[in-house]
Structures
1.
Amino acid sequence: MVLDVQNIGRSFGGLRALDDVSFSVEPNRILAVIGPNGAGKTTLFNVISGLFLPDTGTVLHRGQDVTGYPAWRIARHGIARTFQNLCLFENMTVLENVMVGRHGSSRCGILASLFHTPTQHREERAIRQSADAALADVGLEQHANIPVGALSFGQRRMVELARALIMTPDVLLLDEPGAGLNTREKLSLSGLIRRFRERAITILLVEHDMSMVMDLADRIVVLDHGRCIASGTPEQVRSDPQVIASYLGGAHA
Ligand SMILES: Nc1ncnc2c1ncn2[C@@H]1O[C@H](COP(=O)(O)OP(=O)(O)O)[C@@H](O)[C@H]1O
Ligand SMILES: [Mg+2]
């Protein structure tokens, strides 16, 4: 298993945002995490990516316990993410926004960057090359040097994706990457996600567009009020009575 989530619990005050959530993800799979608003999907990503400590439970990445690691260390370990609400620096260029993804994990640190050491130049060049490659992956290589503020919403989402890619992750957490995209953009996003899987990146996908989820996912985990109420193949989940009642509703039944 590339990722094992075991008995994760997390409360905010009296609210149990995650309650004993467990699942495993095999390598090179696309796992969709679905559920109504407030179900705990983003909280789950925040726990896996090291932004929140869980109250209970363990996160294993390739068998190693990474629970409680700070976010930069999780990212360096190979788990990268994007955010539900875009997290970009409007006045910086597209390229700079992507490179930011790696500086957090740069080995040289602040001291070295004050005195441009040879190591730092080398590292800077390597980061620049990864950023160019990531921008090419998401089709933004022509826009590298313009400010992010000049891009369309769909293109900005791709900048965030490129930023996650330059960590060369083996697990990528995508929190509603299709939100606000038009049909054509969603199609190209789906194609991109499939290409990531071919490149041996395991994807965890939070997405409300059920046709996109059913089309892409190898497996689905359903959260409701912080609990995992079902998991399985798209076919199994789609025909699960509890899932239909609590989430998919009449329109999808
Ligand atoms: N930082 C936080 N502080 C307080 N409550 C939070 C925080 N983050 C999430 N919650 C609450 O936890 C529950 C789950 O939220 P969230 O994980 O964002 O759900 P989802 O992403 O499935 O819509 C919600 O009731 C939300 O209000
Ligand atoms: Mg959310």
Note: Residues 105-110 have pLDDT under 50 and may be disordered.
2.
Amino acid sequence: MSEAAQPWDGARIRDLRASLLAFFDEHQREMPWRETSDPYRIWVSEVMLQQTRVETVVPYYRRWMERFPTVRTLAEASTDEVLRHWQGLGYYSRARNLHKAARELQAHYDGALPTSAAELKQLPGIGDYTAGAVASIAFGKAEPAVDGNVRRVLARLLDEPSPTAGELRRWASALVDPERPGDFNQAFMELGSVVCVPRSPRCRSCPVGEYCRARRAGTQEERPAPKTRKPNPRIVEVVLVLRRGEDRNCEVFLRRRPADGLLGGMWECPSREANEGPDSGSELWKAQVRRALQGLLNEIGTGSDGVDDLGDPRALTSVDHTFSHRRVHYHPFEVAVRPGRILRPPEGSEGYCRWVPLRDRTRVPLPVAQEAILRDLELRLAAGASLS
Ligand code: SF4
């Protein structure tokens, strides 16, 4: 931390803390996790809130706590059930890590969270931010917790365009209130959410405006400097919607994605990447689709049955989905299995391949785009619409 970046002495720091805590005492928003001191609940809320808005998190949090009210209930749940309760919240590694960590806590800590940030960081999925937030809010430890909101407020208070993670952590450590560290960290985040917002910060009603260098310099809109990000690549995937049965009582073939990686552990209609030609209606594109579908049939081990045996692939409505680092354009194709054909999943594949009644798909965790594809199929079947 440079000399120039240390604008406050001890007395000013105490005043700044008092101003921020007074703001929090008066203006904090009601949130279900602010009504508890249970470290498990605070931990779950902090994980859910990463990259996700408060309004989105609240109903998920309530449902989660109804089903998994303790570390033990979470540890004993199946992966499918955990992912299903996370379905739609995105960044599914968060749910998988919560589950893994709960199992470790149950096995080694009798279901209780450790109280120090250093120990918390030993658990899967807990980094500096979550450890600091849980240690300060649940256990009253004077630890910093730097999330995106705090980063923005600090960069403005100190008028620094590109503070490093180390600098931010040092500044936040110097500021955190030793008497009320949890409230202080939440106050900082709250300030970033409702006052020191990314565009047009409300400096006139800011409780710490008198300490703010960027406000004095008129540079608040430029702090922190925007990160240069490469545009997300666009990927095209062909999706095999394999159906057996004639109406909405039909079954669809699902397989589970590998445990790690994007959407790890979720179920889906098998898909694979394709190169989209300039014209999606071209013969070249159709040939590519058939190759991709045949490849998927081979992958899922349905024997020698090919697409030609099974009937014509028919296009369903395409779906776009944006992940944190890529945009995916899904081209789903429905392939109906002819009556009399069974197409058993390969032997020993029960854990990762199965036929699921279309109506019962809510019993397995499905990515948002896959649910959209299957809902489209269900509506078409219900309407008796032509699928061509
Ligand atoms: S004065 Fe303005 S820029 Fe500075 S911390 Fe407050 S809201 Fe943010």
Note: Residues 153, 156-157, 195-196, 201-203, 206, 208-209, 212, 214-215, 220 surround iron/sulfur cluster (CB under 6 Å).
3.
Amino acid sequence: MKETSEHTQSYYAATVNQETDYPRLQGEQHCDVAVVGGGFTGVSAALRLAELGYDVVLLEACRIGWGASGRNGGQLIDGFVEIERIERRFGTDTVAIVRKMNVECSQIVVDNIQRYGIDCDLKLGYLDVGTKPRDLAYFQELIVARKAHNYPHEMEFVPQETLKNYIGSDRYIGGLINRGNGHLHPLNLCIGEARAAEGLGTRIFEQSPVVRIHHGERPRVETAGGVVHAKKVVLAGNAYLGKTEPKLAGTVIPAGSFMIATEPLSADLAHELLPEDMACCDQRIGLDYFRLSPDKRMLFGGLCNYSGKIPNDIAATLRPKMLRVFPQLESARIDFEWGGNIAISIYRIPQMGRIEGNTYYAHGYSGHGVAPTHMAGHVVADMIDGKSDRFEIFEQIKHLRLPGGKWFANPALALGMGYHRFKDLF
Ligand SMILES: Cc1cc2nc3c(=O)[nH]c(=O)nc-3n(C[C@H](O)[C@H](O)[C@H](O)COP(=O)(O)OP(=O)(O)OC[C@H]3O[C@@H](n4cnc5c(N)ncnc54)[C@H](O)[C@@H]3O)c2cc1C
């Protein structure tokens, strides 16, 4: 399967509310902030900046939501960074700030959907499922610890005896419901947020890959056909940034993650599989994640590779995984298969920093990104607006680099995929 600069052939691209067709950048533009990358990180930064009154130009190499943001599992899960990773480096004040961010990130998404009336099928309710006794112990610890820190969402432990009320699978021995997490159509969310930013004055250009950034007091951001003169720049290309900014080479490892979507299932079968229509995820390192779409397809994801290549037959690997969870889907046709790239940060802490004083970046969400990208977009925008406290926490963290930023063929890095395991007990 070869990538083009149009959307990949995903279920999301096939069901988008309204395709975008923003112009290519031609000639010169002037603005306060130039944002490079039209995924959740870039779009949420642009939207927040526009809300704060900044004049923004957003440059996307392909289409809004073309990258991971328009291709993901649509699982809205809170958490920005594992508290214990921060705790080792910083004191209790910082931990308190990060704990708040862990909850705030998904609230930003919910608020945007409500404020801007974005039609993206948001459905709250999430079921973590376990295959091992240690998973169940973890669920119970998590409930206690979150209660101790006034976690605002309802959480409920589900023993094996009642698990059938939530999932029609014999694969799991217990679960954890979180009513604050959920699922949504990520491409429609991303486009809806871009349109909201546009409504506040942001100028958006698609099919406009940035080829060079000239740093300095007044940075110049160049594409093949034009140049943007900005006071500040935000780099939000995540796993797709490539060589755009040589100073970021090797900071994250791109890895592929893949999904399939079945044909629409009968209402009875869909109800048997996921009676409460919750998004689900298991606790293994090579995790399975799945949910129903509004038209009752099973959207199932879980494969991960570090080769940088999209396998020719994604379904050949993912379908057997899906059937291990739901043998009832034996005769269900697979209508869509697709993949996208996530950016793994070796310490699994999202990376934020600045280059030459006025170019900011945020990336490396390590597989978990729908909610964290929104948090990062806000933190970078607030930094530009003079509120530096949260940005500076993350800017201080030194991240391990890999030479040249090449694709890395070490399966141990699958550890970075564990977005479900927010063992921080916040
Ligand atoms: C298959 C899959 C399933 C996933 N499932 C989930 C999930 O269920 N829940 C969850 O929380 N997370 C999930 N994730 C992770 C999540 O999607 C990502 O972490 C998140 O979308 C990253 O957003 P982003 O904006 O940083 O990057 P992206 O969405 O990848 O956007 C980067 C954009 O920058 C553009 N760009 C790059 N370089 C340039 C340049 N030089 N000039 C102009 N534009 C440029 C690209 O074209 C791209 O559109 C999944 C990811 C994948 C791939």
Note: The two ends are 41 Å apart (CA to CA).
